[in-house]
Amino acid sequence: MTPDPSPIGLPLGMAPAVALVVVLAGPPPSSLAVAVAVDPPEEGIATMNEPGRQPLLAYYFDRLERDGDLDTFLDLVKPRYTEGTLRRLVHAPDVRVRRAAVTALGQLGGFGCNPELASRLADPDPVVRDLARNALWSVWFRADSPENNERLRTVIDLLGHGRLDAASRAATELIARAPNFAEAYNQRAVAAYLLGNYAESAADCRRVLELNPYHIGALGGLAQCYLQLDRPDLALPVFKRSLELQPHDDGLRRLIASLEGPPRLPPAGPPARPSPPRDASPNDPSAD
């Protein structure tokens, strides 16, 4: 997801959701490393703040970066770290620990970790920011029951194949089953936008934000809907709200600056032609 408008005019943060299914699913099983994990030396303890000691979570993340073995990383993290601990560790001073905690929450965390993950969109480290963005989408896609999460995948598949009406109907059925499933509304908003139903898409985006105020995709989508409805005055505060969550996003900052710029004046017409002088007449005082 990028804050810049899509080159094909798709809503900000909404269209990339289809592609994110592949990104967030992780590597296929055939690509996973087969190395057996070996626990680090005992000095890598979970308290991780004693001077001179290797943070255990950072050690696991170093292995993940080296081997690309996500399954092993998760197998090491799950028995040693609760979700609550990982939520605290996203604020750790060690950037490796923040990267590891965000990655783990993206795969293991529930909807309740939204605030902590969203806070990392403002992290000074760009890798943490990218990991947080992907982690949020991953959490949002599995925020309901396994059955409803699978139904959401069906909606996304239909969108990916351009079956917009079918995707909209499937999303509506899912919403009837799970009225608090924010991502179901977001995907229906995607379908509505692509069908040119911008007011309907905006309504769904607003519902997403009621359920999930950190949904940067819905924020971008809502702003784009307002632009399509010729309401830049409504789009601007939505873009600003998105920038508050993503303060390092230069593309979003440029969009806001363009909307805040001076209004464009209409093109100047041809210069006015002077009126010809009046002919003097005996009754014209100027003739004297």
Automatic annotation (TrEMBL):
InterPro entries documented for this protein: ARM-like, ARM-type_fold, TPR-like_helical_dom_sf, TPR_rpt, Ycf3
Q: One Pfam family from the UniProt entry?
A: TPR_8
UniProt keywords (A-Z) are: Repeat, TPR repeat
One Gene Ontology term of the biological-process aspect is:
receptor-mediated virion attachment to host cell
Q: Does the keyword Ligase apply?
A: no
Mention any one GO cellular component term assigned to this protein in its UniProt record.
cell outer membrane
Q: What is this protein called?
A: Tetratricopeptide repeat protein
